[in-house]
Structure formats: structure tokens, C-alpha cells
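Posting this for the archive.
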Amino acid sequence: MTLKKYALTIIVMSLIVSSALPAEQQQSVGDKPSPSGGRTRSAVRAMNGMIATSQPLASAAGLRILQQGGNAIDAAVAAAAVLCVVEPMMVSPGGDLFAIVWNAKKKELKALNASGRAPRAASIDELKNRGFDRMPQSGIHAVTVPGAVDGWARLIERYGTMKLSQVLQPAIEYAERGFPVTDVIAADWQVGLTHKDQPDFAETFLPNGRPPAAGEIFTNRNLANTLKRIAAQGPEVFYRGVIAAKIVRFAREERGLHTRRDFANHASNWIDPISTNYRGNTVYELPPNTQGMTALLWLNILEGFDLRSLGHNTPEYLHLLAESKKLAFADRARHIADPAFYQAPLVRLLSKDYATDLRKRIDPNQVMERAASSPDGSPQGGEDTVYLTVVDKDRNAISLIQSIFSNFGSGLVAGDTGILLHNRGAGFSFDPNHPNRLEGGKRPFHTLVPAMVFRSGRPWLTFGVMGGDMQTQGHVQVLLNLIDFGMDVQRAGEQPRLRHFESGLALETAIGEDVRNALKNKGHLLTTSPGMFGGYQAIMIDPKTGALSGGSDPRKDGSAMGW
């Protein structure tokens, strides 16, 4: 079966599955509110395997791998590579990756940090000498060594059952033959006009001098050739071979500090995730240099409140979320940095006693004074990310997130490689006294956080929310929807969300005027943030039956698919 026919078949199957509920269940699902106040889709249910991603072709590619006998890890890497083609403003082989993996046979839970490091020659003084007074948000000095390709290889090497060359084939086909651009992605593509003066970028991503419209066919044959090289020669070609040489040559032409040695020295790291227990559920996140500890600390603070009694998205509930968020984010700003350079006091920060002390600072009737202000210690941008999750027939599970940080990353395409380079270096601090300060060979603060939740020692939920500092804010709100309010895996991701900024509190439009006025009376400054509430994907494993149910955020073009 050809790729196009296969993808069409899967999409049709998915639509049939989504509408195949008994009439009485269809009615109850249809009554559930969406973020815009309309009707929602139902959760997708299956037994043999499931994938949820932010783009249907990526979901179809992962499902294709599962049906060919691959496992969850094989399918995840295949989908991640396809997303680099079909959602290019969000993700690229020129970005970074993190994952949490559950191996069902070994009963082993591990995490992979596949983020890259700054060039060895990078420093605050060096950038000051070049005329910068803050960390650049785009351009070559925001580019760290990309870690995603090594991450793909390490995942397949340790937990996969297929070869890297096999799982990259769907991405190669889409890059070479083309695909129709989806609606949400077409809207996101408009930001590409910001980089129209970069010749390689314009040639790659602005065909005919403009972003492609929804439904137009887009190809990236240079990227197809690059992916073919990686498929044939493995990650070595990216870090020590011809691709590395091309990227470094391009970087030097842009007056960057990158060297072949910086690429050759790159290595991903297998690490242990960190966790907390929230109402009997063990929530796993990644340690620094990611913001995973923030969600865990925040949950610890909230555990001391009877949230259900407050009511979902009431003024009292939203006030409590916003105030506890400030406390958790204060420690986020102080402590998240590369652990090779700074050891955050995680034992203290994640203790229940510490959360109890923080909880006492919350006034249920009034906003607190700003808990912390550290704009130079934490990244301010970073909305552009893809999250995906897969569970297979053996109940291996992977929670994977991959990103280029800002929309279209650094705005730089490395010559004829077709590779868009990320701007993860923008996550460094320019404060010489901050743990996250720019230093050569150092990993920056990362907003990327995949998550997994266990019940009775086994995976119950694998999920993530995309979107800069919205990721941890989304993690907490989704988990409260599931655990405290008993929502299903689809409804939990569709509920209207808040997003707290230093400039104020943003609420999605379905949260009514009466709630907004009550929050103003408590002292909240309300602000607007259209399109900035993240994108969620999740798979839940029923502890009794083992059945899978998947949810996919209607804020994105994505879908959950099972078989």
C-alpha cells in the first residue's frame, strides 16, 4: 500500500472509531464544553496500540510502524521525524529532544536528555565584545548544538526493535514527495515572513516568496536528502560527518562560534526522572536542565487544598492556581540550569514540608506580592514545540517532546541541508551570577518536559502539553482535571485554561465575564494571550482492563489513533 493511500485509510478509520459510540454515550460526550464553548470529540479507544501527535500524518506514520511490528519507541521516532517535515515551524532535526520511556518487560523507567550544548568558545564576555547586551533570541548566537538526531538514535539503540533507517522512511517520503499543509500549521507558517531576508530560509520555507496556504503541497527535498544520509550512515554523519561539516561551515559564515569539535563531542544522556506523589499518583518529570521540577513543586503545594470543593474554573479555583504558580515559578527562576554546572537542591524543593511552608503564603482572597522576578534567569519565549506519546501492544510507553524553541527557531537554514536550526541558546541568562548563565559547553534552561503518571507501580497516563512556560502550567491543569475532577483523557485536555505571565493572568475565552470580574476583585490583572495556551496529547492505560484511551488537543491539528 502506498503512503498516501495508507494515511487516508488511517484517517478514515480514526473518524469511524471516534463516532462509533453508543447513542447514549454520544449525547454525554457532546454536552462537554470545549475551550471555545462548543462540542468536543470523544476519546479514541483501542487495545493493540495507540499514538497521539500534533499532526495527523505523523500519527498515521507512527501507527504504520506499530502495525508493521515496531514497538512504541520505533513509532515515536518515526512520528517525530515526520513532524520535522510537516510542522517545520515547530520542530526540526536541528532542535533538541527529551523523552521518558517505560520498558514493560524489564519494568524499567528511564529518561533521555538529548539537548545540546553551547559552543565551547561561547561566553557572556564574547557576546558583549560582539555588541550584545542580552542573550540574542534569534540568529547564529542563539544556536546550540542540536541534540534531536542523537536522541532518535539513542532511543532506537536502547529500546527500539527496528533500525533507524526503517523508521525514518515515512519522513523521507513526505519531504521528497510533498504533503498538503494543514490549517493550523498554515496559520503558524505566517511567522516565517519574519525571516524572508535569509536566503536559505526563504528558498526552503517560502516557496513562491510566501508561506504555503492550507491545502497547498509542500516539499523539502534538501531535508529529504539529509534524512537519507542519516538513515544510511546513522548519527555519525550528523555529528562527525558531512552534515556536521555543512552546518559548521554555515555557522562560521554567519560569524558563529561553532566548531567541528563541538558537534563531535555531543552526547545524549540517560537519566532517572524525578517524581512526586499527588493524591496516590506518582507523577514523573525530568530534572534540570528542564523545568520538570516546577510542575512537581506546584502539585505539592496544591495537594493541601480541597480543589474539588472549590469547583472547576471558579474564581476561587483559578485564583489558587495562579497564586501557587507564582511560588513554584519563583524556584524555577532560581534553580533550573545544567546540572553539570549547578546542582539544584531537588530533595528540599520537592519535599512535602517545603510545599507546606509555601502554601501558608497564599491568601484565598487577595493576590500576593510578586513571588519572584527573574526575567534574565528564565527563558521568556518558546512556544514552538511538538509533543507525542505512544503505547504499544506490550504496553511499552514513551512520552517524547522535541522543539526548536521559537517559531522557526533561529530563522536560519544551514545551507542546502534543509535543516532549520533552533534557538535554544536564547534560554541562557546574561546575568554572570545566575546558575543558568551562558558558558561554553553548557546546556541552557529548557522548557521541554514530557511526563508520565503511574498508579500501583505501572503506567497509567503518558502526556504532555506544548508551549514554553505553558508546558508546566498545562501539566498541572490537565492533571487536576483528571485526578481531582474525574474527567476523561480527551475532556481533560479540552477544558479552558489559564496562563499566568509576569504581566498578568490570561484566560481562554470560554471562561466567563463573571469569573473574570471576581478575579479582578481579588487583585488580578487580566491580560490577553490568543493562541498561547499550549497543545496537549495523552494516552491513558486502564488499570483494570489494560485498554488504551487517547486524547488530542483541538487547539492543534493533531489526532490520537489506535488499532
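The longest helix spans residues 315-335. Confidence is low (pLDDT under 50) at residues 1-33, 372-377.
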